[in-house]
Design goal:
347 residues, alpha/beta, Rossmann fold, 2 domains, 15 helices, 45% helix, 16% strand
């Protein structure tokens, strides 16, 4: 959201980006737009969602605004209600197929609740969009409203340099949420058989479980948890990696239609990656072979890691293709699409 907010701000729009503060949140960096974090008593579960909806509703109600942008279904209801009260335009930005994520698909009542919100509110939005072409088609069919595609891409910046890793072994990097369906357990277990070290950047529902697994498997010397990292530092860390990781298990349609931010972050860092063999990644990899597409079982992970560690011809081919792909898939190019839709919205 910082990327899109910055683009809109540069184009002359006044932006306020609203989120929530967590106990381990890193301090906000000064940006060219206003940022606000809401504090909640509850940090997860149903009580958190109830509290957050209420707090967001009252914040939006008393905040001067011309347009409201709801990111994912869990912010849509308070934005929808306030848009009706104030008579302002409403935008929905779907970062994922919310009702098809593993945390929701296994809970029928929760899934029904969020899907009902989507079906009740999305038809009243003046603009709806998501991160990939395939997901846009799927969401358009589900909610009977045309979703546009605006990819979440990094800024093309060739001046970013890697930090010194102080590591004698090649680095395998995962960045992102530590949640169900990312096959992170398999990645950790694979490190028993790979002459490399693993860096895990981010936190999530599985933070404690994954750390305990590392201790149980006696892999503390090979697996390092870096926690939350500021975006500018994350780019420098990513450039240190030799191989990046973006595998997913086929749990829910959200993952099967995904086009993760990290996929493009790895490309811009010119780091070959292990990637889920799903449709959005297949389409891009057919144009620019930047990744090995594979299943998320341990044997496949180990085999792919060994291949990239030992086949310098293949590795350098993927690395060179990353540089080419970054010239196409970048925020400078995608901002043209973003601004077109918002100029049309505000005209």
């Amino acid at each position: 959201m910082q990327r899109h907010a910055s683009c809109l701000s540069d184009a002359g729009y006044e932006i306020i980006l609203v989120g929530r503060v967590l106990p381990n949140s890193i301090p906000l960096k000064e940006m060219n737009f206003e940022q606000k974090r809401l504090s909640c008593w509850f940090q997860n579960g149903k009580l958190f969602y109830v509290e957050f909806q209420i707090r967001l509703f009252f914040y939006l109600l008393f905040m001067p605004t011309a347009n409201l942008i709801a990111v994912d279904l869990d912010t849509l209801l308070p934005n929808f209600i306030v848009s009706k009260i104030k008579g302002v335009k409403l935008v929905h930005d779907a970062h994922e197929y919310f009702v098809e994520v593993p945390e929701v698909t296994n809970r029928p009542l929760t899934r029904f609740f969020w899907d009902a919100i989507g079906k009740a509110c999305i038809e009243h939005c003046q603009l709806v969009y998501t991160v990939g072409e395939e997901l846009a088609i799927e969401l358009s069919n589900r909610y009977e409203k045309k979703f546009e595609c605006i990819k979440n891409l990094p800024l093309l910046n060739n001046e970013i340099r890697a930090l010194n890793s102080n590591s004698d072994l090649p680095i395998v990097l995962y960045q992102g949420a530590l949640n169900e369906g990312r096959a992170l357990e398999n990645l950790i277990l694979a490190m028993h058989q790979v002459p490399a070290i693993l860096w895990i950047v981010g936190e999530g529902d599985l933070s404690k479980q994954l750390r305990n697994l590392v201790i149980e498997e006696q892999l503390a010397s090979k697996v390092n948890f870096l926690g939350f990292v500021a975006p500018i530092d994350l780019r420098k860390i990513t450039k240190q990696a030799f191989i990046a990781y973006n595998l997913l298990e086929p749990k829910g349609l959200s993952y099967q239609f995904s086009l993760a931010n990290k996929f493009f972050d790895y490309i811009h860092a010119e780091v070959p990656q292990l990637c889920a063999n799903f449709i959005s990644y297949q389409r891009i990899n057919e144009k620019y072979k930047v990744a090995l597409l594979l299943d998320a079982d341990i044997n496949s992970i180990v085999k792919a890691l060994h291949l990239l560690l030992n086949d310098s011809v293949l590795y350098n081919e993927l690395k060179a293709n990353c540089k080419k792909a970054a010239q196409v898939y970048n925020l400078q190019n995608e901002s043209v699409v973003l601004l077109h839709h918002y100029q049309k919205l505000c005209s």
